[in-house]
Every structure is written in structure tokens, then in C-alpha cells.
């Protein structure tokens, strides 16, 4: 059975702003403590890779990844992009003024839901790099589709503001079960407090037992 383990990163429960994961690897900031590496290896089964974007530790805000590729904003430095290319995944640089890509794109291995505010020229890059179908839509009344949901190949957890119609759309797009939930004692921006792959999840330290049970039943059914 999958594990959902509460952790802190730099003393914060907003762990999803620092970590980006797929089923193969987890990208973490250079100065994250070794204890987080251990949690990632034990719970997610991932190889841990140190990285940065524009010399920032906010990998979970800037990067979108699935098992096929990684989307990177154009503020990334050449050496950072080259380091990511060395990992053996497709790398796509998104030319945009909206550099917090993970707020604008929700993806698993089947599809990506892209915010209507992301420039249309980027849709093909998303499709080709992640190897998925692309759907342009809002979720839970917001264009910040990546901030209010977390998806893997088994489910998608969405902010409680999502309507039944939102859940049905997401199930059709992503090909998985969808349900609502929160992290860190009721926060709706679930991606900020949750990183998950198909094997398990890390959540912010403040996440309650009831919230963890909902994550388990949604993402690991």
C-alpha cells in the first residue's frame, strides 16, 4: 500500500513549491537536508537529483514534469537546462511571461490541462515534451489549474471549490478518478503542500490525518 508521509522543507509545510517529481526522479533544491532525500527514496522510490531554476530553490513552482519530460520556464539558465537534459528526459523551454509553470499546467502521463492564460504558442511544446493530449480549461473557477490539483496515473486530488462538473472534466481529460481534498489544515492550493507519484506522496507537516486519508483514497485507490 502507498505511503503518505508528512515532512517539512526549510521549516515549511509548503513542500510542493520546492520539489518536483515523476515516477523516476525527484528534483530538489541543492541545500535540502539529506533527511528529505531519504523520505523521497523510501516513499516515492525516486532517484534524488539536485537542481535549481534561475538559481532559485522553487522547483515545484517553475517545473512541470511527467515520466516523459520536463517543462522549464525561459528564465532558467543555460547550465541548469543542460543539467536537466543530462537526466535523459525530453526538455522543453516555455517562452512565457508567466514563469510559474506549475501553477498553469496540471499533467499526468496521459494528458495536460493548460491554463487559458498560457500563450497558445506553447501548447505544442507541452504536447510534444510531455507526450500527452492537451486540454485548455479552468478548474474550480481559476485559471491557475496547476495550483489547485495534483494528479498521478491513478487519481487527481482537487481543491474543494471544484464542482461536480470540474471533477467529471478532469476524469475525462486525465483518465483517472477525481475527488476533492485539502492539505495543511484546509488549504485549497493542494499542489503547494503535496508531491505525489504512482507509489506514494509527501505532504506538508500540518496536513491532518483526515486529509491524508482523502489523499490515499483519491490518488492510490
UniProtKB/TrEMBL annotation:
Extract one GO molecular function annotation from the record.
ribosome binding
**Keywords for this entry?**
Initiation factor, Protein biosynthesis
Choose any GO biological process term that the UniProt entry carries and state it.
cytosolic ribosome assembly
Pfam families according to UniProt: eIF-6
**UniProt superkingdom:** Archaea
Annotated InterPro entries: eIF6 (IPR002769)
State the function annotated in the UniProt record. Answer: Binds to the 50S ribosomal subunit and prevents its association with the 30S ribosomal subunit to form the 70S initiation complex.
HAMAP family cross-referenced by the UniProt entry: eIF_6
Q: Which PANTHER family match?
A: TRANSLATION INITIATION FACTOR 6
Q: Which family does it belong to?
A: Belongs to the eIF-6 family.
Protein name, entry field: Translation initiation factor 6
Q: Which organism is it from?
A: Thermoproteus tenax (strain ATCC 35583 / DSM 2078 / JCM 9277 / NBRC 100435 / Kra 1)
Amino acid at each position: 500500500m502507498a505511503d503518505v508521509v508528512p515532512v517539512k522543507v526549510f521549516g515549511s509545510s509548503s513542500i510542493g513549491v520546492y520539489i518536483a517529481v515523476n515516477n523516476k526522479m525527484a528534483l530538489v533544491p541543492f541545500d535540502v537536508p539529506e533527511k528529505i532525500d531519504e523520505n523521497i527514496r523510501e516513499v516515492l522510490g525516486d532517484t534524488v537529483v539536485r537542481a535549481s531554476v534561475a538559481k532559485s530553490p522553487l522547483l515545484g513552482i517553475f517545473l512541470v514534469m511527467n515520466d516523459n519530460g520536463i517543462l522549464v520556464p525561459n528564465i532558467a539558465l543555460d547550465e541548469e537546462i543542460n543539467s536537466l537534459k543530462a537526466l535523459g528526459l525530453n526538455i522543453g523551454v516555455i517562452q512565457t511571461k508567466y514563469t510559474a509553470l506549475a501553477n498553469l499546467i496540471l499533467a499526468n502521463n496521459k494528458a495536460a490541462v493548460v491554463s487559458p492564460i498560457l500563450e497558445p504558442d506553447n501548447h505544442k511544446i507541452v504536447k510534444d515534451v510531455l507526450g500527452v493530449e492537451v486540454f485548455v480549461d479552468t478548474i474550480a473557477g481559476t485559471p491557475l489549474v496547476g495550483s489547485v490539483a495534483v494528479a498521478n496515473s491513478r487519481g487527481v486530488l482537487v481543491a474543494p471549490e471544484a464542482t461536480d462538473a470540474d471533477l467529471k472534466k478532469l476524469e475525462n481529460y486525465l483518465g483517472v478518478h477525481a475527488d476533492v481534498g485539502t492539505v495543511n489544515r484546509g488549504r485549497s492550493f493542494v499542489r503547494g503542500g503535496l508531491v505525489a507519484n504512482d507509489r506514494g506522496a509527501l505532504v506538508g507537516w500540518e496536513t491532518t490525518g483526515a486529509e491524508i486519508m482523502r489523499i490515499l483514497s483519491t490518488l492510490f485507490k
